[in-house]
Description:
By secondary structure, this protein is an alpha/beta fold. It is built from 13 helices and 21 strands. It has 2 domains: about 5-75 and about 100-180 and about 275-350, 3-Layer(bba) Sandwich (FAD/NAD(P)-binding domain); about 185-270 and about 355-390, D-Amino Acid Oxidase, subunit A, domain 2 (D-Amino Acid Oxidase, Chain A, domain 2). It has helices at about 15-25, 40-45, 55-60, 65-70, 90-95, 105-120, 170, 240-250, 300-325, 325-330, 330-355, 360-375, 380-390; strands at about 5, 10, 30-35, 50, 75, 80-85, 85-90, 100-105, 125, 130-135, 140-145, 150-155, 160, 180-195, 205, 215-220, 220-230, 265-280, 280, 285, 295. An 8-stranded mixed β-sheet has the order 7-6-15-16-17-14-18-21. Strands 9-3-2-13-20-19 form a 6-stranded mixed β-sheet. A 4-stranded mixed β-sheet has the order 1-12-11-10, with no helix packed on it. The radius of gyration is 22 Å and the shape is globular. The model has no long low-confidence stretch (mean pLDDT about 95).
Amino acid sequence: xxxxxxxxxxxxxxxxxxxxxxxxxxxxxxxxxxxxxxxxxxxxxxxxxxxxxxxxxxxxxxxxxxxxxxxxxxxxxxxxxxxxxxxxxxxxxxxxxxxxxxxxxxxxxxxxxxxxxxxxxxxxxxxxxxxxxxxxxxxxxxxxxxxxxxxxxxxxxxxxxxxxxxxxxxxxxxxxxxxxxxxxxxxxxxxxxxxxxxxxxxxxxxxxxxxxxxxxxxxxxxxxxxxxxxxxxxxxxxxxxxxxxxxxxxxxxxxxxxxxxxxxxxxxxxxxxxxxxxxxxxxxxxxxxxxxxxxxxxxxxxxxxxxxxxxxxxxxxxxxxxxxxxxxxxxxxxxxxxxxxxxxxxxxxxxxxxxxxxxxxxxxxxxxxxxxxxxxxxxxxxxxxxxxxxxxxxx
Length: 395
């Protein structure tokens, strides 16, 4: 016989969506159990971007998990767009009424959230196996899994599928219920982590005839840098010197700007896609984060979109348990998707404006340059970029 446990919300996945949701529910007095197939070490050491919108920063502070972020995070009030060897700054503070972004790695966010869940008695079970879900349309859905060799069942009121693009929750929804929308891009990003001070106080997005480049940072001593490449290239063909040479060419300016270089600590190639599934709920399971949508990283929206999903879900669950009302829960997908598609539009726009496409012609190149010229010379266009980048309102 399996070991049976009862909770209000079963959460699959201990990434940003799952852990933020679990702690939000705790603050609302709602029980949850988080199940994760990976180890805590793996989850907390995965290399992921760390650009936090103003909304995400505010929420983490309100949740009481923002102390390290306030101490170690790098607050930025703008980005730079670079093209034709010229530098153009988008001033977030001026264009959005004082809003900004914070550079704070996703791994650090997860460490803070895990520590908070442990300190408050939360249940986060790592390295569980053979996870499956059943009874999604019943009043008591359940999650079946193996934990340290024992068969277990977690009986819930609701299940939150926060288990990523390759998780089990979305495929467990019956065929014909979901509609998938996807676009795969014909390029990827070669990313490196380098032991070198950032070359700029703010992120630099560069458009160049050789392809896109992005200069970001992890800490005051570590730089996170990216260049556009073919998604299936052999990483072994990219020596450190070749990477630095390519970066120097793509971010060069006419005034002798200097790129800080140093030992390459990590490197890898990531493909790019846009993906959305509709609806984001079925029966008593709710999809959140990468299980429901993927955005190309150009707009720095993945983590932030996951957090906004579970903010909405937590509100709906709070309303359900305190008032017995299901209006927010029943409209969870509709509310989330309105924001998801706006974020997809922004991420697609940033990607299409800054990258070179293999089938483009001289007209396309001139159009991209005109777009960049317009964005950096029109206050209205710059404001649109800025308000999307720092984060649209939740509702």
